[in-house]
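Standup, Tuesday
Yesterday: got the pipeline producing structure tokens again.
Today: sanity-check two examples.
Blockers: none.

Example 1:
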Amino acid sequence: MADTDFWLQKIREQVCPNHSDAADYWDSLTPEWRGLVLHAAAICGRRELKPSLARCTWAELFTRTDPRTILQIRRGIQHGRRVFAGFGSLRDSDFSARTAKRDRKPEPAQKRGIEMVIAPDILAAFDARQQLNQEG
């Protein structure tokens, strides 16, 4: 059965079809916070988002970008929510100096630089050439 929020949303769509909570919130953000949202969206997508978009209102954002970019911004917001939810509840005690002294979990060894993978037949050809050079 549908709850009250569902029916309020349906009524809002009929009475005020242009209403958007996302638009209201975007317009209430400072350009710095909008830039953070755009940065999260750029991390999650393939399109580069220009910093100048942070100075745009919601309506201007739609005129300067295409629908795919708007969806990328939505994905960035969703990804940001998941990342920040990973912190859980933010107690004051979690941000004290004593927490920096905790035992660190061992990190897996990371390879630095590019690791090249050579096919076995190429290795065999190199070995054969090296043997010919040593014999001759």
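Example 2:
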Amino acid sequence: MPEFEAVIGLEVHAQLTTESKLFCSCSTKFGNDPNENVCPVCSGMPGVLPVLNAKAVEYATKMALAVDCQVNMKSIFARKNYFYPDLPMGYQISQYEEPIAEHGHIDITTKAGVKRIGITRIHMEADAGKSIHSQVENVSFIDLNRSCVPLIEIVSEPDMRSSEEAVAYLKELRSILIYLGICDGNMEEGSFRCDANVSVRPKGQEEFGTRTELKNINSFRNVQRAIEYEIQRHIDCVEDGEKIIQETRLYNVDKNVTMSMRGKEEAHDYRYFPDPDLVPLVLEQKWVDKWESELPELPKARRARLMEKFSLPDFDADLLTADRATAEYFEATVKAGADAKQASNWIMTELMRELNQENLHADQCKMTPANLAGLIALIEAGTISGKIGKQIFHDLFESGDDPEAYVKAKGLVQISDSGELDTVVDEVLAENPDETARLKAGEKKLIGFFVGQIMRKTKGQANPQMVNKLLAEKLK
């Protein structure tokens, strides 16, 4: 049998962080009561006219510039016609033949190295509403809060060959959107959604195989699992002589399988035509130039700079720059006096654990970069041990207290006085004569036992380096 390769393209819907919707002034706030953020325009009442949100145009253009797209100075809104209960107008306002941007790319990094992924197009569109199905009541409800919320759809070229590449592409895309401040990237709330087009072909073959579409997968892990399952399903079908059907499939997280949803629609099924209620969107060059000048340092550039400036490993730089707030927290911690590698270690472990548990971003926590730098300084000065630092980290994170003041108030200052520790070491050796004799006879693994006993007697405040030094001297 031939060896197969996957061909993967992704369609990403990113919800723009505008305060109002794409064609009306209704709020885009997530979590409001059902149908609270609704007006005659976004509920599709007869006779109403849409008015385009200028901020959404700015955000879409900034994304296009960030991924090296060609910005089209003229673009057209179209009606995408289909029927679904949560689509009150009976059509979705989108862009088709003339989108706002085309022909871009981003570079991703995987174990195999750096690879460029093409971006076919970026277009603007209004989101549909949401259907809510109650099995208990055996009824369905429609919530139109999301109707007309501004989206950009980012369509990749079919350049990815593995689930790993697909996830790397999604993470890079999400980071860029967050750095730009135009999308919060929240997959659980649906503000960053992914559809994956998957096919397989024998290696060396130019022609694409029949593709299937996987809809609205809500986490990076599930994207990877769904694509891997679908690739293997395609290979099994081909090897068994079965025909692959072009269709849309849903991913079942619990069973780790994809299931047929409907036949895959083609563009002609939607009967696209220019929206007669909206004039063409015509940009002025001075606007585009201004928006381009406002672009921040993007993840790729920041990653390279941190690695060069602070000699950070790839892993650290990738993790720290995945989120703009985290990257800025790291740099502020170093600026406050912390060693770069120590700051990286504490942020990647203790800080990120607390942030994840509280569902916070780095710029939302009470523990300031200066306080983290202060905690690291206390450990490096020997005022407290690293173990004590980790034990008190949660309290400092919750309270935002100054670490030095906290340590003094709690009586946690590390005992580094050799005279005081010498007495404790003598006491522990005297209390454990059998172990002392075995240690003197060369049973070195007992060092850990004695250090533990000394730390217990001093309530964890003994300087472990000093303890080891004193034990070594007494056992000569």
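Quick observation on example 2: The longest strand covers residues 113-126. The chain has 15 helices and 16 strands.
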